[in-house]
């Protein structure tokens, strides 16, 4: 409290100087206390009076500062540190009470310090002991002397998808021509154009003025609503001090939103106190300019009054020269003196370590839902898998401040089986836009629509790499359908289909059983470099109702016009059944460079027949596109009704199939383990199974079991010896046959045959030696094994009582 005492002395000195000035002017001086020759005794008396007043001052502690109640927290289950204080904590509370009384006496205009609130058990606890340092890879982050605890953003905003660009086919770049056709003259009136432009500008200016007046009116309405609690609210924030951990400047962190703010922010009106798990500091600086002029040097006792004097106290920030000089002076003054230990260590934290279960961590907020209200907007967040439709975030914007008129709604989804990621609903236009991630069954990327009914305005965009036909976008209206393609082998990139009025038929689904009649099909193709430009079709138009086919070819680089051709499509027979012959008037063409073979009727007939087949194919593809639209709409309706969610195979709590499979595997492994742990193989089990299970074994039955066991084992030994002997004889006979064959054909054998023969003989002799050794070993060990089994049978606990007579 040295700074507080210095403050009192400065006030007394200022009063004495003021009294001296008044005495020189001849004014009457009214002193609160007469200080004459007894100045020293009176000073001691003032100090005693001050001490007596401080001791009589009582601090009003709020009855309940915690929001927890006995109904929400089981106090009996809390640890003992929550329900009582240790001797060191009691001593700290006494020190805090003394500090608070002195602070209230010297700074009566300040807000009472927040030192020892009540915890869940209504026990006063010092605020610094509520902080529990966590052992992390960066422990200094939890020390406010270096850096405060960072709060993670547990509810991160879902990023918006990238803006979707419309699919535009790049036009073929044509090099500049030497000659060009002059454009026609503009015969429109410039005066009328200027008047029209001026009129549009006036309308636009009037609209902008109206919007500006409306915004100013709304701002005036908001400003009129004064805040009666402005400057009276107290909030706890996290202060991160600059210095260590490469923190360039100090800043604040809101613990509820994890958003960072500069210390120069206007939202911060002042700071009453700071604390960490080691000490407590009171701000002694003037906050008339908010927090902009505050110096966050906790080692300066003039600006920050500390509670505990300890070894962990922050040092005053000085330059290197001042610090070196100060250290030298201290060394000279403290030479030969012993340091007096007047420190008081902060008691350890009484708070238990926070443990968050995976289920609670996944909820991200209480009950898994959080609502944030903004100006003309509302943001709602949910934990994954909390909603059955996979909804995790919803942003609603409103037209008015009361949030009664909705403008648009954006909904974000996760873990959807239909890969739906974002749904944008515009209430003003009624337009709905669905965005999908890769993986949809129909490769759908974006779906814009106003109604889910077929043959209405809609736009579908696809992932072209996931489709065989390379479809990128499909635009549909009640009368037209336009499709854009990319990367096709036939170079098709555009198809436009015009429909006519449907013939009325009684049908349940007219769109499928009674398709719309096709009037016109327009197809455009990109340049095929393998074909000449005069033979490479750029645009193909099927005028079905007029029975005409129009072709436009690509323009050559050295030409300014392109060739065109038109076919009059007629039926192959007339009304009388006579076959119609191809005539020159059925093909009208304009060729930049005429070719002889194109003028032949046979060539024109073959081209027309080919175009007829392509027309049928185009009509069929248009019909398939209509059916695909119906299929997608039906699939989307089913997906919206069911809205199934995908569950990872590693999520064993939600994935029932994975859970069942894991339980089955664990059951099999457990059974296998039990079989392995069971006793060794029982050599009497096959023979005891032949006896009645409920009857007690007699001596005759015991002898019979022993004899059958020995007889069976003896037979097994004999069978094994016979098996080895048979293999030995077989290998010997084959070797003899091979040797006889060699003797007969020795003269005609080649070098390779002799090498193969020698290799075979070597391997055969090796197998014969192994079999001979095994047979000899079996003959030696068989009698020993038989005697060992007989001894085990005599000592077997199930037969031992019947074998005593024979032993």
TrEMBL record:
One of its GO terms (biological process) is flagellated sperm motility. Residues 366-648 form the Dynein regulatory complex subunit 7 MORN domain. Keywords: Cytoplasm, Cytoskeleton. Residues 234-305 form the CEP76/DRC7 peptidase-like domain. Residues 183-208, 334-344 have a biased composition (Basic and acidic residues). InterPro entries: CEPT76/DRC7_peptidase-like_dom (IPR056290), DRC7/lobo (IPR033551), DRC7_C (IPR056292), MORN_DRC7 (IPR056291). Its main location: cytoplasm. Pfam families: CEPT76_peptidase, DRC7_C, MORN_DRC7. Residues 319-333 have a biased composition (Acidic residues). Residues 1-22, 175-208, 319-345 are annotated as: Disordered. Residues 695-802 form the Dynein regulatory complex subunit 7 C-terminal domain. It is found in: Cytoplasm, Cytoskeleton. One of its GO terms (cellular component) is cytoskeleton. This is Dynein regulatory complex subunit 7. It comes from Lynx canadensis (Canada lynx). The lineage of its organism: Eukaryota, Metazoa, Chordata, Craniata, Vertebrata.
